[in-house]
Structures are given as structure tokens and as C-alpha cells.
Amino acid sequence: MWLGVDYYPEQWDVELLEKDLDTIIELGCNVIRIAEFSWHLMEKHEGEYDFSFFDNVIEKAKKKGLNIIMGTPTATIPAWLAKKEPSILSEFEDGQKRSFGGRHVYCFNSPVMYEYSEKIIRKLVEHYKDEKAIVAWQIDNELGHEGSDVCYCKQCQSAFQKYLSREFNGDIELLNDTYGTTFWSQEYNDFDEIPTPMSTITTHNPALRLDWERFRSKAIVDFANFQTDIIKEIIPDAIVIHDFPGGGLAKHVDYSKVAKKLDVVAYNNYPVWGGQREPIAPHEIAFGLDYMRGLKSQNFWITEAIMGAQGHDVTGYSPRPNQAKMWSYQGFAHGCDSMMYFRYRGATKGAEQFCYGVIDADNIKRRKFYEVQSCFKDVIKYKEQLSKPVSAEVAIVYDYDSLAAFRIQKQSILLDTQVEMQRLYKTFYDVNVPVDVVSSDADISKYKVLLMPQMIIEKPEFTSKIKSFVKNGGTAVMTYRTAVKDIHNNLTFGAVIPVSYDEFAGVSLVETESLQEGQGFPIIGKGAYEGKIGSGGIFRDMLLVSDAEVLYSYGDKFYTEYAAVTRKAQGDGMIYYLGCGLDDDTIKSIMNSIMSDNHIVTEESAEGVEVCYRGTKDDMVRVIMNHTAEEVHYKDMLLQPYDCKIEKC
Q1: CB-facing half-sphere around the CA of 466: CA atoms within 13 A
Q2: pLDDT tens sequence across 436-475
Q3: Phi-psi region of 376 (alpha: psi -120 to 50; beta: other; left: phi over 0)
Q4: 331, 399, 455, 461: least CB-packed within 10 angstroms?
Q5: What is the pLDDT of residues 194-213, one digit of tens each?
Q6: Are strands 3-6 and 563-570 parallel, antiparallel or unpaired?
């Protein structure tokens, strides 16, 4: 178990180094994370490499028993490189180059970026290849974050055209036919006529835009793999990590693919950021943690845990006493087995002056310091249990292409696919049932229940997996806007929606509509739900039932003949179809029935109290967290505001 801080010794007087390291040891740390933003310090002039500063840092850290997580410095290119090779800079949609001065300003399709990155990475890794104190290598920093996942420069346009040529085997007529470019006279004679989907009148072809999303993702995946390959070539047994930012499901990159070559997924966990009125809800924090764990279906690290208020230009909400510590426990509860706090000391200069650290710029130990110290002192006692994998019987499945399809065509003003995932997730979270959040290409055979919200792109291989899963005893839950489009983001002529699931689920889509605020409608319970009345909104499918059981039908006068929620037994399992956006109570009722039917163990706790278990059956610990600002009880235990505890079961 690695416990530590993110330390930027290059930002401070070298005379502080010894004292800082002593204080870091006093915190209970055994590792420091360094060097991720230090390209210029390592290469002040082209080809003149100097690692002496970090040699000194590492040597002094080793003498005090500290280990190192070393970053490749490519997230922030040096000014001399931007000046010499301006093509390296990415561009906004309007053609304006991103100015040197921020971070992540390079283009992922720049050959120059690859050339200079390879040089600095090779020199750095060769220099430290025999350094045993380096326990992990971090590639870059928060790939695709803050808008860096999109670039519209000429390099990207050319690379996109070449990507499409490869995808369609050089056959432009095949692309024309696939995209349906006869619509609006968009036929291409050659791949070099294909535009990047920048602003135009109305909108670009949806199939083109989905391929653009795939291309954007591939560019970042390729760059990550490029760095990992260099490190592994020089140090075959190196542990390679990447620190993923939050909000991954909304980005133009499939983080599950970035994660494939990594040894460990790392996460920068910020429940609150500058400009936010208050932290995101506890179940949303948990969802983000479970999403990280699901990238490789294994435990992960937190490389940036919050302790103070955060913000670049707008200072954020300051976590209340014990609140940030409680978020750290929540990280461990959901599969984190190593943690670093951002940052050791708050900066006095630069863009992150208001990103407060464990110690503030006045260099005085206060409450935050002692909260971190107590957290590390506590969790290290349970490192064996916390190193064991999290075992979940329920999974939420997402698909990058489907998420991209909703970015391309939102379809409903009210629909936020991630919010809808989290609404389903919350019903399990509220009764302390662990949930994996996994990509559609993950192994799903180990689960009892699969939730597959808004999987709008129908992929035959995934459809086959779901059918086998259900027939073999699993329960799958489909929602509206599932299996509507093919892999090219087109509707399928002659196919009944849900495509390839209609007979399997026993329903077919007759009509559909999007709804806005105030346009809700009643739904009426049937059978096992007789006498219950709920409400729906956002979107709805009018379902014609062939041989499914109707659980709810629509209650407004024009659509009473159509089902809103159905289920059908298939083999040893069950397939549900949620045909509209359901109210929270109805979701809870249906999900509770699913948990009961699948013998999933639940645990009631007071509102705002989260309970998780880590370890093995014979060696288990319970992590208890109070997410509220009030005193609450858990069994015979009184929990103070934002209290958190680990205890042996």
C-alpha cells in the first residue's frame, strides 16, 4: 500500500527539501509523486538533458525511506518547443491555436510531439532504469482533460481522412454508401474531401461524427500506448500508471481502452472543484470511484485526493472538518488500495495558488495535516483487507459509441445519460450493494444483474453476450433508447426496435417521443405492481407487447394500449425493458424486486450513511461513512458529522 503526497520540489527553495521530506514522513507517507510537469527543468535547451535536480530529490527521499512515483513530463511542453515548432499546438474549432501557457496544449496527432516526447521519455527512463526507489511510472497527466481531447488543426484533418481511408479499405464509395451521403448531396470523390465536423449550417452527418469521435479517442489511446511501450521496452517490469481525471464518461476518449496497457489505473478524485456551490452527491462520488475500478476490473490508486479547497481562478468550497478524510475512506471502500494527496503544500505562484494542499502556503501544520496523518495511520492497519478485490454482483454497462451518439444527437433536452446511469446506480448504493461500472467489452458472466441504460448502438457481439447472460440465469435491464442504431450511427431499414432484442424482450417500439420540463405523464402498475401509480418523463417508447409481462402501462388517454415497463423470462433469467424515464420511487421499487429475486444481500442504514465491506469472507473489514453534517447512528455506533471508521467484522 502506497500512501503519500504529490510533491513539487521544483516550485520551492531547495533549502526546504530536507524539512519537507521530514514533514512528509511525519504525515505517515511512504511515497512521493513527482516530476509530471517538469519538462523544461529536464531539458532547458533542445537536446541538453539534465536530471540532476531530481537525482538530488530522489537520493534524499531514499535516505528517509520514501519511494517515488515518477511522471513523464509531456503534459506541459516547454516554451522553446512551442516557439520552434508551433504546429505542435492544438487548435480550437475556429482555427485559433491554443496559446502556450496552459497545459495539455499539444495536438495528439502532431508528429513533432511524438518526436520530442520520445526523446525526453527515453532519456528520462534510461537515466532512472536501475533506480529501485521508483515504484511506478506515471505517463503524462489527465489525458483528454479540460478540452484537450479535441483538436481541429490541419494535422488532425489529414489524420482523420487517413483513418477513414483505412477503416473503409480505401473504398470511398463504401464510405458514401455507409454514411448515406446522397442525403444533401454530400457524396465524396476522394477521402481528402472529407471535412472535420466543425460548425456548419444545421449539422454534419451522424455517421461521420461518430467516426470523428472514434478517431479522437484513438488518437489519445495511441499516445498513451506509445509512452507505455517506451517505458516497458527499457524497464520490462515497470509498473506503469496513468492518473485519470473525473468526468470520463463525457469525454471524447474511451478510458477503458487507455487503461488496457496500463498496469494500474489511477484517479484524481475531486468531489468538489472551484465554482461548485457544494460537493457532488455521495452516490455520484461513489459512481466515479466504481467507474475507475471498472476500467480494468481491478483495484486502483488515487493519485490526487482532495484535502483543501480547490480552484484555478475561482476558489472552491472548503471541505468541512473530517469531510475530505471521509472521502478518502470512501475511496478505499470502493477499491482504492494506494492514495496520494494533492498537494503537499499549496502553491504561492502559478495557476494553482487556490488549490489548497495538506499544508497551506504559510507552511503551518493545521487541521488538514492531522486529518491526513490520522487517515494514513488508520488505513495502514487494514492494508491486507483493502488490497483484496471488490466483489460485486451487479454491474452498470456503458458503451463509448453509445455515449458519443448522444453527444452527437442529444434527442431529448432533458436526457443526460450519465445522470440516468447514476439514478439507477443510486437504488443499489442506498442499500449498500456494491456495483461495478464496466465497458461493454468487459466480462459480464460473473454478475447476477446487468443494467444497460441508453445503449443506443446495437452491436451484434454484445447482443449475443447479453442473450447468453440472460439465458444462463442473469437479469438484464434495458432502457428506452437501447438498440436503436447500428454501428455506423444509422437507423436500420426493416428492423424493429429494439433491434435484435424485440423477440427476445417480447416488445417492439411503435412510437417514441422526447418530453420537456412539465410534460410528465402517469404510469399505471399491472400484475405484481397492481395499484401502484408512478410518473414518467424525459423520453418514452410506446411498447407493443408480444409475449412479455406488463409491469406498467401508460396512463394518459392516447397511449393506454402501450406498455411502459415490461419483463420477460428467457431461459433461466429475466430481461426487463424500462420504456421511459421513471420517477425515483418506481425505479426503487423495480430494482428492489430485482435484488430480492436475485438474492442480493442488502443492508439498510440511515440516510447519508454508507457501508462497504473489503477483504475476504474470513478476513473482512467494514468501512462506515457519514456523508452528513449531523450526528447519526449506525447500529449501536454514534457517528459524528462526516465521521468515518474502519472496523473488523
Answers
A1: 26
A2: 999 999 999 999 999 999 999 999 999 999 999 999 999 9
A3: alpha
A4: 461
A5: 999 999 999 999 999 999 99
A6: unpaired
Round to whole Å and give the CA distance between 110 and 363.
Answer: 41
Helices (H), 28-75: 39-42, 52-63
Distance from C-alpha of 323 to C-alpha of 23, rounded to nearest angstrom: 23
DSSP state of 632: E
Residue with cell 444481500: 601
Separation between Cα atoms, residue 585 and residue 372, nearest integer Å? 39
Give yes or no for a contact between 627 and 599, defined as CB atoms under 8 angstroms apart.
Answer: no
Dist. CA 636–CA 530, nearest whole Å: 38
Mean pLDDT for the chain?
A: 97
10 Å CB burial of residue 268 (0-12, 13-18, 19+) is buried
Contact 489, 405 (CB under 8 A): yes
Closest CA to 242 of 136, 329, 379: 136
pLDDT at 347 over 90: yes
C-alpha distances in Å from residue 74, one per residue of 223, 234, 347: 11, 18, 21
> CB–CB of 566/543 below 8 Å?
yes
**What is the chain's length?**
649
Residue type, 486: D
56-76 per-residue burial string, b: 16 or more CB within 10 A, e: under 16: ebbeebeeeebbbbbbbbbbb
Q: How confident is the model at residue 373 (pLDDT cuts 50, 70, 90)?
A: very high
Minimal CA–CA distance to 394: which of 615, 599, 616, 603?
A: 599
* b/e per residue 599-634 (b: at least 16 CB within 10 A): ebeeeebeeebbbbbbbeeeeebbbbbbbbeeebeb
Q: Are 29 and 3 in contact (CB under 8 A)?
A: yes
CA torsion sign, 349 to 355 to 358 to 363?
A: positive
Closest CA to 76 of 160, 6, 146: 146
Phi and psi based region of residue 321 (left: phi greater than 0; alpha: psi -120 to 50; beta: remaining): beta
CB 309 within 8 A of CB 324: no
Q: Give the residue among 573, 506, 583 at the shortest CA–CA distance from 537.
A: 583
Phi/psi zone of residue 144: left (φ > 0), alpha (ψ -120 to 50 degrees), beta?
Answer: left
Task: Supply the DSSP string of 172-196, one letter for each residue.
Answer: HHHHHHHHTTTGGG---SSGGGPPP
- Say how far apart CA 71 and CA 73 lie, in whole Å: 6
Helices (H) and strands (E) in the chain, counts: 18, 26
What span, in angstroms and rounded, lies between the C-alpha atoms of 415 and 114?
A: 39
- Residue indicated by cell numbers 538530488: 56
Distance from C-alpha of 174 to C-alpha of 300, rounded to nearest angstrom: 43
pLDDT-derived band at 176, boundaries 50, 70, 90:
very high
Q: Does position 316 have pLDDT exceeding 90, yes or no?
A: no
